[in-house]
Amino acid sequence: MRLKDKVAIITGGGGGIGRSTSLRFSQEGAKVVVADIDSVSGQETVSLIKENGGEACFIKTDVTNSEDIQNLIKSTVEIFGALDVLFNNAGIGNSEVRSVDMLEEEWNKVIDSNLKGVFLGIKYAVPELKKSGNGVIINTSSVMGLKGQKYLSAYNAAKGGVILLTQNAALEYGKYNIRVNAIAPGVIDTKIIDQWKNDERKWPIISRANALGRIGNPEEVANAVLFLASDEASFITGATLSVDGGGVIY
To answer: Which residues contact 126 (CB under 8 A, 6 or more apart)?
Structure first.
């Protein structure tokens, strides 16, 4: 088991990549803290883990709220005694509009959810990860953090920021043996792409816009996150792993 007795927090653990990673981590021996703003979906993930014999708990968390993140870290340590892995995964998309037509309120919401949430996770998790002696942070960026896309200005900006924040944290905390990496998923079969699926004109193009000619599934991303969290990636830090079927080169 690659994460035996490790304690891991997964934000956005109620569905999609977060749920798949929560289940995958549990299968590999981790004690999982599922953090999500949606209590129903978060509890469902915990139930699935427990049904398969794993250890998990749910903590309702808004990643844009500093007090929520501090409570998440504190409660994790109180419940499981330590923190070894943080997967900053929670995030949202934005309306497909030109930058000049985007409301400031939406810009702020997207930046807060996708970038500020990662910052807060790092800020408050690092003191506990230092104690681990082998701490790991993994941040969810996107293929859209590696290249621009029309009508996704806030999402592009936030996910690009995640990559540089990942590099910054890797440099700052490597001396404590904390590894910090990012993943950059492409088009993955989660709720965030529902609006694309319903577009009869765009979907046939979007669904094949990578070297493999198909969309990915959350389990494929979870396997990449598991690798970065494990000792198999012990000399990898500051990296961004594309999990996109070759979308970034397409």
So the answer is: 135, 169, 173, 176, 178
* Residues in the chain, overall count: 250
Angle at 142 between CA 140 and CA 146, to 5 degrees: 125
Residue 206 DSSP SS3: helix
Count of domains forming the chain: 1
Residue 25 has pLDDT above 90, yes or no: yes
- CA of residue 179 relative to chain centroid, distance: 15
In a domain, 2, yes or no: no
CA-based nearest residue to 153, from 108, 192, 212: 108
On whether residue 56 sits in a domain, the answer given is: yes
pLDDT higher than threshold 90 for residue 52:
yes
**Measured distance CA(100)–CA(151) in Å, rounded:** 10
Cα–Cα dist 180/141, whole Å: 13
* pLDDT tens sequence across 192-234: 888 888 888 889 988 899 999 999 999 999 999 999 999 999 9
Tokens of 87: 């997967």
Catalytic residues: 155
Range of the domain at 147: 7-249
In this structure, is residue 1 part of a structural domain? no
* DSSP line for 120-145: HHHHHHHHHHHHHSS-EEEEE--GGG
- By C-alpha distance, which of 171, 121, 115 is closest to 144? 115
* Tokens matching residue 235: 């000399």
Tens of pLDDT, residue by residue over 101-146, are 999 999 999 999 999 999 999 999 999 999 999 999 999 999 999 9
Strand (E) or helix (H) holding 159: helix 153-173
- CATH code assigned at 32: 3.40.50.720
